[in-house]
């Protein structure tokens, strides 16, 4: 394995890509095709020790840019730990230059694209991809953890806007900037507010901090988000409150933030799984996308869609230890997956991303009686329709 990463590092050097210190690069946005700038950091010892490294994504605050992470001291801290860092300039839907992007879809893809660049060019430990930010960067961190719980090991969000439908909880300047970026569509405000995704935080750790005397973003934003998360994840990490703390970037420094993150990994008890494994999922999304072993397409792209799945034996029952880890096919009974959807036009179950003993033999699809939900599966990389004889379609109990 070391020899493999040594070869990768050598190829990176031949390609003229920096292998140590601060880096600058551009990438093509997967969302709108625009060229976007990013900056980052590569530890000095990478050439001598090309083993996979944790990658920290730093989302900049309102008015910040790709160099904000360096100015805040993240490069210095990453050098001590041997981590990679990347920080794209987050561009918005209506604002130019990324100064007021407010967790736009464009900015979300800036994060994803910069991660893809780092994975392509450097040895990233894909089980230790972290994200952190404060203020607008905290807002982005919350959204990315909620929408990509299978990608990020954990995130630290400081002083973040969790519900921008409540403009009265922001300073006058912030309350003026948000509508400039979000426009007049109420859904645009909801889809950028992490509190609407509270259920998704059950699947990836979010560490929140906030000063109680914050004059720009009311501390109620973090309290309300935490309270919503706890209703889905009772073991959620309590908010780190700074009594009488104001809206200062020095409140919690990079060393503390990296300390909170470093022990998290997207590992599970099933060997060779690419992410954490959950036999039950309850997710909400504002766009068509993949989660864990599911890929969903919305029926109406202008409102949220939900999907809830669970696994159960066709006959009898099995205990959680059998669902979670280690059992082999001979120990398992045929599994039935129940899928309950709202505003979903298509569901693909990726069998390749499920433990083999738990791949469903049958599917019960619960959907509105007027909806036409297409079901597919992926086996050995090939997408095909779910066999009709394996599907039972039914309407919700209250339909």
Notes on the structure:
- This protein has ten helices and 18 strands.
- It is of the alpha/beta class.
- The chain has an eight-stranded mixed β-sheet with strand order 1-2-4-3-5-6-7-8, with helices on both faces.
- The chain is globular and about 60 Å long.
- The protein has helices at residues 2-14, 68-71, 74-81, 105-121, 136-147, 172-182, 186-191, 220-230, 254-261, 320-324; strands at residues 21-28, 35-42, 53-59, 84-88, 124-134, 154-158, 206-211, 240-242, 281-285, 289-291, 294-298, 305-313, 335-342, 344-350, 362-366, 374-379, 382-385, 391-394.
- The longest helix has 17 residues, at 105-121.
- The chain folds into two domains: 2-261, Alpha/Beta hydrolase fold, catalytic domain (Rossmann fold, 3-Layer(aba) Sandwich); 281-394, no CATH class.
- The termini are far apart.
SSE inventory with pairings:
Layout: H1 2-14, E1 21-28, E2 35-42, E3 53-59, H2 68-71, H3 74-81, E4 84-88, H4 105-121, E5 124-134, H5 136-147, E6 154-158, H6 172-182, H7 186-191, E7 206-211, H8 220-230, E8 240-242, H9 254-261, E9 281-285, E10 289-291, E11 294-298, E12 305-313, H10 320-324, E13 335-342, E14 344-350, E15 362-366, E16 374-379, E17 382-385, E18 391-394
Parallel strand pairs: 3-4, 3-5, 5-6, 6-7, 7-8, 13-15, 14-16, 15-18
Antiparallel strand pairs: 1-2, 2-4, 9-12, 10-11, 11-14, 12-13, 16-17
């Amino acid at each position: 394995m070391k020899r493999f990463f040594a070869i990768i590092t050598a190829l990176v050097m031949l390609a003229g890509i920096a292998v140590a210190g601060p880096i600058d690069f551009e990438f093509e946005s997967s969302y709108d095709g625009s060229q976007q700038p990013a900056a980052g950091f590569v530890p000095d010892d990478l050439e001598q020790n090309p083993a996979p490294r944790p990658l920290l994504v730093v989302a900049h605050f309102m008015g910040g840019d790709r160099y904000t992470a360096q100015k805040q001291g993240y490069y210095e801290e990453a050098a001590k730990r041997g981590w990679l860092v990347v920080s794209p300039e987050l561009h918005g839907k209506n604002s130019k230059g990324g100064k007021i992007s407010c967790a736009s879809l464009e900015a979300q893809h800036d994060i994803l694209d910069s991660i893809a660049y780092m994975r392509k060019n450097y040895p990233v430990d894909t089980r230790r991809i972290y994200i952190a930010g404060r203020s607008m960067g905290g807002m982005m961190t919350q959204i990315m953890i909620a929408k990509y719980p299978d990608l990020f090991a954990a995130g630290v969000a400081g002083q973040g806007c969790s519900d921008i439908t409540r403009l009265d909880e922001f300073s006058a300047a912030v309350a003026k900037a948000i509508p400039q970026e979000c426009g007049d569509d109420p859904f645009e405000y909801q889809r950028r507010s992490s509190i609407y995704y509270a259920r998704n935080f059950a699947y990836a750790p979010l560490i929140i901090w906030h000063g109680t005397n914050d004059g720009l973003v009311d501390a109620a934003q973090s309290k309300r988000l935490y309270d919503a998360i706890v209703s889905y994840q009772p073991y959620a990490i309590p908010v780190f409150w700074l009594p009488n703390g104001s809206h200062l970037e020095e409140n919690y420094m990079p060393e503390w933030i990296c300390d909170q993150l470093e022990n998290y990994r997207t590992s599970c008890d099933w060997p060779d799984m690419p992410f954490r494994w959950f036999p039950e999922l309850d997710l909400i999304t504002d766009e068509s996308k993949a989660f864990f072993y599911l890929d969903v397409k919305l029926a109406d792209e202008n409102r949220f869609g939900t999907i809830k799945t669970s696994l159960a034996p066709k006959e009898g029952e099995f205990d959680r230890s059998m669902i979670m880890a280690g059992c082999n096919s001979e120990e398992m009974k045929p599994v039935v997956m129940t899928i309950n959807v709202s505003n979903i036009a298509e569901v693909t179950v990726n069998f390749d991303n499920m433990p083999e003993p738990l791949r469903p033999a049958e599917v019960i699809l619960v959907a509105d009686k007027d909806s036409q939900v297409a079901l597919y599966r992926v086996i050995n990389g090939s997408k095909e329709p779910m066999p009709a004889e394996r599907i039972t379609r039914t309407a919700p109990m209250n339909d």
